[in-house]
Amino acid sequence: MLGSRLGQAIDGQECVLRMNHAPTAGYEEDVGARSTVRVVSHTSVPLLLKNQPYFFQQSQDTLYIVWGPAKKMNREKMG
User: Where is this chain's protein located in or outside the cell (predicted)?
Assistant: First the structure.
């Protein structure tokens, strides 16, 4: 994506999906700034939490979907 200069075209789409903790800040010209859906692996959640202002305060319109194995996602179990 680097050097593509597709940021404006990406931001112009109805739905923009991002994966895990992929950055947009500093790369807007190539990847855009909007995120309508961010799909996050359970292993990336700690990385997102370390940088909450960046990932969670960009837009209240972003839907976060966290996925992973049930044994890692269950609050009553370790993981």
Answer: Golgi apparatus membrane
